[in-house]
Amino acid sequence: PLLSSTRMLQQARSGKYAVAAFNVHTLEMLQGVTEAAIETQSPLILQSTVGTVNHLGPEYIVAAATVAANQTGLPIALHLDHCTDFNLIVRCIRAGYTSVMIDASMHPFEENVRQTAKVMEVAEAAGVNVEAELGKVGGVEDDIIVDELDALLADPDECVKFMDLTGVHTLAPAIGTAHGIYKGTPNIDFARIASIAERVAAPLVLHGGSGIPAEQVKLAVSLGMAKMNIATELRIAFSDEIKAVFANKPSENDPRTYMVPAKQAVKQLAMDKMQLCGCVGKA
Ligand code: 13P
Ligand code: ZN
Ligand code: NA
């Protein structure tokens, strides 16, 4: 069966490694990261965004993820990424998701607390892990002054207060990473990670995993990041292989022909990220 990610991530936090969490959009992407977990004997978090839940339907995603967990016998969780809609969270929990993110980070602190606590109520009853976000993960404009930049990052005092008020299992504090591929090197506030980790015992989640240089990932993980989300790089790896097949043979019309190399590229990238996270052999 699919497992809640709570224990998996607590073990990662205390073992100073991170579990790699992959946003998948198709069956082959899901199979590719699962094969990577088998080959490296890693714990695994399969994730879907709200858009993919709407695209495929939560029941199909749960069914495929459940097969992955049952056939491999590996610790695998299924997580709903960046959800702002309470009703969709409830729907996914009913369908069998074992972890959900309530993203109320665009609201003031008190409203974020209120929405997160409300999700905690339904999730705890179902044994489902909850992730919340503080600060705002996003692209950083080149000309934003430091004060404004700072305002986007999670405040360590607020993190402590937030954990006390919500009891949320896992926390994604904004510390300077961004979704998508970075133009230069990401401007990660490692001192902030350290000061949050010093005061928050729960597993911390690193968003914006695509494009972070290896040394920066390792440092962030060593400081307390216990889960790393990877979306964009996986999509690119998958799509590039399909494009290459069609560039070579525009008349190709057998999906298996282009899905096989695409799945293989997903697997390879996932194995690289697992290595980076230090979760290889931790299943
Ligand atoms: P990337 O697209 O940068 O990999 O970010 C992934 C993420 O944080 C998903 O929640
Ligand atoms: Zn994210
Ligand atoms: Na990124």
From TrEMBL:
> Superkingdom of this entry's organism?
Bacteria
The UniProt entry, under InterPro entries, shows:
Aldolase_TIM, Class_II_FBP_aldolase, FBA_II
Give the protein's cofactors: Zn(2+)
Protein name from the UniProt record: Class II fructose-bisphosphate aldolase
**What organism is recorded for this protein?**
Paenibacillus lignilyticus
